[in-house]
Design goal:
It contains seven helices and twelve strands. By secondary structure, it is α+β, with helices and mostly antiparallel strands. It folds into two domains: 172 residues, no CATH class; 28 residues, no CATH class. Strands 1, 2, 3, 4, 5 and 6 form a six-stranded mixed sheet that branches. It has a four-stranded antiparallel sheet with strand order 7-8-9-10. A two-stranded antiparallel ribbon has the order 11-12. The chain is globular, with a radius of gyration of 40 Å.
């Protein structure tokens, strides 16, 4: 029975104010019920995902490794490897330049040096912290050890270490090259070399090169992944393929600088 009928049944005459009061009560009750239902079903908005930081920081090349070397930095690198046994050759300009010559994404330093006066004994020490090679005329098995002579022009290539490259205090791996300094030595980027040599027989190069003229012949010094070699575009016929067998010896071409006695035993 409605409130109006109840009021009539009880002898109460409903008025417009009474009816408005009943309607307001119904409205308030409805709002309360809806509000409770809405609060019960409301879910919190999804929070944006926060990127988790990796514990391993990405390797980035420092700004110093990307800038050009200063004379002070070059002398520091030379002292790290050669102590006071070698100095920059002042007759060549430029006498140092950078590049990724061994292709490990760490900047290397190439420096034209001469033995310091009175330091030949140090340059020819029995166990030097560098690798002495002649890229134009490699030593043959059984040949006497190479030696540095007084006033000899040498090309030292200090391989970089990590993002700081050759500036790093641990960058000590160095190749010391004889007969490898021409009057026009300069840096040659690997991509430019490959683009210019399309369709030609090229050696397998690991990184950037050094373009220069040696013994009157223009060519390039490059790192093969094992050692520095000389590439003459006019005479190059392809690299000799050798297959490694036991103990570092090779078969077919019989080239093995570390184990010449084993090669002799195979003959």
């Amino acid at each position: 029975m409605s409130h109006k009928h109840q009021a009539l049944h009880c002898g109460i005459q409903p008025t417009s104010g009474y009816l408005r009061l009943i309607a307001a009560g119904f409205l308030a009750a409805s709002c309360f019920i809806c509000g409770c239902s809405s609060r019960g079903n409301t879910t919190e908005p999804a929070k944006p995902a926060v990127a988790q930081s990796s514990t391993a920081a990405p390797v980035t090349t420092s700004a110093a490794a990307q800038t050009g070397p200063t004379l002070s930095e070059v002398n520091q690198a030379l002292a790290r490897v050669f102590k006071d046994a070698a100095t920059l050759d002042s007759k060549h300009q430029p006498n140092f330049f950078t590049g990724d010559f061994n292709g490990d994404a760490s900047q290397d330093l190439a420096v034209i040096i001469v033995p310091a006066p009175g330091k030949l004994e140090d340059m020819n020490q029995h166990f030097p912290p560098w690798i002495l090679k002649d890229p134009v005329a490699p030593a043959k098995p059984g040949a006497p050890p190479m030696r540095v002579v007084a006033n000899e022009l040498l090309l030292a290539i200090i391989h970089g270490y990590g993002p700081n490259g050759w500036r790093d205090s641990q960058a000590t791996q160095t190749y010391l090259l004889k007969n490898a300094v021409g009057p026009d030595a300069k840096f040659q980027p690997k991509p430019e070399f490959l683009a210019a040599g399309q369709g030609k027989t090229l050696p397998g190069i690991a990184g950037d090169l050094i373009s220069e003229t040696l013994q009157g012949k223009p060519g390039y010094l490059y790192y093969s992944g094992i050692q520095y070699s000389w590439y003459d575009p006019k005479t190059f016929k392809g690299e000799i393929q050798s297959r490694v067998v036991h103990g570092g010896t090779t078969r077919n071409n019989k080239i093995d600088l570390l184990h010449p006695k084993l090669i002799a035993a195979e003959k």
